[in-house]
Amino acid sequence: MIGIAAASFLLLLAVVYLIARPYLAPVRYAQEVSLEQLRADRERLRSQLRELDADFETGKLAREEYERLRARRLQQIEAATHAIREVEGLREPAEAPAGAAGEPTATAPTDEELDRELERRIAERKRLLAELEEAACPTCGTPIEPEDRFCRRCGAALATAEVNEG
Predict the structure, then answer these.
(1) Rounded CA gap, 84 and 128, in Å?
(2) Do 81 and 74 touch, CB atoms closer than 8 A?
(3) What angle do CA 78, 83, 87 make, to 5 degrees?
(4) How far apart are CA 136 and CA 155, in angstroms?
(5) Are 146 and 164 in contact (CB under 8 A)?
(6) Which of 41, 58, 66, 142 could form a disulfide with 153 if both were Cys (CB 3.0 to 4.6 A apart)?
């Protein structure tokens, strides 16, 4: 009788362990995302944005729905771009030499240094958002690339072409 109780107890422990194991494991998904995956996601989002623009142009989408979906897609593209820059930033120190033999490379950052870094990141984020808002055709609002001279959708000449040539 004691043997059956002990076996039942061990079986119960095994079941509890198997159920709780996923919750006890550390979350590592953010580090496992490769730079190539992030770039592919960003390109996929850009493609979806172009399709969305085409659907609106052909009348398949109402203006309200188009604006809502377009704003969400632009936010996703910006987030993907930010994630790519973060991953690239995380990889840069690993590629740098680690100082002379056995010498420590840096001390723990102070609160002031952390505040400056945080302010720098906030300013960078604001700059990226401003770039996203500016990177659209003034005539039709289609997203444009920095090297574009004419709008892909309406063919309007872009001011960036004049600045780059001048």
Answers:
(1) 13
(2) no
(3) 150
(4) 13
(5) no
(6) 142
